[in-house]
Amino acid sequence: MAAQIQYADVEVGTELPAASFSVTRATLVRYAGASGDFNPIHWNEKFAKEVGLPDVIAHGMFTMAEAIRVVTDWVGDPGAVVEYGVRFTKPVVVPNDERGGLIEVTAKVAAKLEDNRVRVDLTAMSAGQKVLGMSRAVVALA
Amino acid sequence: MALDQSFVGRSYPPTDPYEVGREKIREFAVAVGDANPVYTDPEAAKGYGYPDVIAPPTFVFAITFAAAGQVVEDPQLGLDYSRVVHGDQKFAYARPVRAGDRLSVTSTIEAVKSLAGNDIIDIRGEVHDETGEHVVTAWTKLVSRAPEEA
């Protein structure tokens, strides 16, 4: 492991650089292919509305993949992430236009643990709503 | 209809190995828009001490979720998959998944609950490589929503 952040340099409350990730219908088609999840709620507006959704929604796993980038971009080595968990609380709605949806992620160090590990708590918002709950990662720092 | 509690603790046979390919990792990294070279450049990965490119943290879900299909589609369990949504997801990594891994998954039902007409099932997937080394554990909570009142 080769984390670029020193354990000694962070404190409880240290904020990681925030990031926003856009998601369009094209993004979802690409993610469906890469992940093998072809559930039509992620690409077929008619189907999504028939099952009671407001519109096509992003894969929860796509949102989870974007959120952890705030941590992996910060620490450098993605292999430094030793635990990562989320609850899918609200869907990320993806309108059929150029702009699509936006996932806004902030994160901060919530606890310093043993063995140079820290717990990072993440917040992921879209359209003013929290889309991931209990979103936490444990990261091994240098 | 409430799911059968006797399924708690049931394990399913390990899946046939899934061979992780460099190009599949690249495809996934492109799909999530992540340009970290450790996902695509073996030399960059070696710089971090890995023998080959590694996969993004959530990549393994495609493998563990496919394995969880054994549970989801178990006719004896009787989960209504058309009403299933993904509730929670968690991973604990012993090491990153990397190109060349041949991974098999052993799925176990950890909990079965019924809450307000929703069926909730917790599945743990233990992922091992070809040498038997533990790579990652994935916990997946699936919620089969109660049908609407007719």
UniProtKB/TrEMBL annotation, chain A:
It comes from the Bacteria. GO terms for molecular function: fatty acid synthase activity. Pfam families: MaoC_dehydratas. GO terms for biological process: fatty acid biosynthetic process. One of its GO terms (cellular component) is fatty acid synthase complex. Residues 18-112 form the MaoC-like domain. Belongs to the enoyl-CoA hydratase/isomerase family. This is Dehydratase. It comes from Streptomyces subrutilus. The lineage of its organism: Bacteria, Bacillati, Actinomycetota, Actinomycetes, Kitasatosporales.
TrEMBL record, chain B:
It comes from the Bacteria. GO terms for biological process: fatty acid biosynthetic process. InterPro entries: FAS1-like_DH_region, HadA-like, HotDog_dom_sf, UPF0336/Enoyl-CoA_hydratase. GO terms for molecular function: (3R)-hydroxyacyl-[acyl-carrier-protein] dehydratase activity. Pfam families: FAS1_DH_region. Residues 6-137 form the FAS1-like dehydratase domain. Belongs to the UPF0336 family. This is UPF0336 protein BGK67_19695. The lineage of its organism: Bacteria, Bacillati, Actinomycetota, Actinomycetes, Kitasatosporales.
